[in-house]
Amino acid sequence: FVRGIEYNVQIDPAIIMNPKVWEATGHVANFHDPLVDCKYCHARFRADQIIHEQKPELDVDGMTQDELNDMMQSGEIICPTCGKNQFTPIRQFQMMFKTFIGVTEGKQSEVYLRPETAQGIFVNFKNVMRTTRRKLPIGICDIGKAFRNEITPGNFTFRMREFEQMEIEFFFKPGEDEKWFEFYKENCKSFVEKLGLKDEKVRFRDHEPAELAFYSKATTDIEYDFPTLGWGELMGIACRSDYDLGRHQETSKEDLTYLDPETNERYLPHVVEPSFGLDRLMLALCCDAYDVESLNDGKDSRVVMHFAPELAPYTVAVMPLSNKLNEEAKKVFDMVHEEVDALFDTTGSIGKRYRREDAIGTPLCVTFDFQSLEDHMVTVRERDSMSQERVKIDELNSYIHNFLAKNRVR
Q1: Which pTM does this prediction carry?
Q2: Alpha helices of 74-124 — where are they, by DSSP H?
Q3: Does residue 41 share a domain with residue 14?
């Protein structure tokens, strides 16, 4: 996703950032969630979320605060905790975590944990252009932690206060917005397909004007149909124009324009931003891969994670049939582990070990038995088909690499 595009470079910006950065971008003024409390049990909720859960036919993203408030006060929304329908008026809740630097706490030492990785890229734009000596277009990429003071985190890893983001800020000449917006829509679609997510579980959704973020001219989400949540956002592709660089330039008085060496024209680059939530992406992959298979005419079953082999936690598990074989089996493990991620599993019966590896998605299990001492071969079992074959130990690494090559996702 990063290295496959020639324009991209990667940086690692700061997590704790000067509050002026967030004032410049509008986060201090605008990065809020609508908060309500139940008047009876005092449970706290995000107004837009509770309305969406109980009135899915409404376009919650397009509703104004007054419209959200009217719905909360209408008596049609029920408190999930106590069943009453009386709520406090909506008040805006700042989602950025505030902390202090230095030995004293006060306005002068106040800072924020970043609620997104993007702004660390924008404030380093000039540094990156100077040090890399690149021309536009250029994609500046980052992967790292972001922090949001969510009112009601939940749904496992779908909504958390601390999460991992992958973002690219792609800078280009003004007027090319549609070209690069469509380029990254196709690129992100290809990326999701290569992960092996089922086609029927993935969709693109264009944002309506009323639901656009304050910095965005256009946004498209890639959504996944989660088993219990329904459709949820995996990533967004936003056309941010020159909003961010313009705000930082205005506030800092630093010249962030780009001098085009071909036209001698100076301008503020425009930006398209693909932004992934890595935790949500991993949750989607787990949901997509999970299966419970019936075996022996329904008399038995197994849990199996059908991960693409390159996404599985381990590629191979090496298992000695008996503890008496541990020393020789460990030699096979050491050989395999030099090539791929591998696990040495010695506990329990072979059948139980197979089931354990199926449940975490290990594609191949290698069993070292007493016959292996004589014929220098091992039994290789494939996860999905459960088929087994004998393979020479000195050909095992080649066998594994051939398996991976044949089973790469699209």
Answers
A1: 0.80
A2: 118-122
A3: no
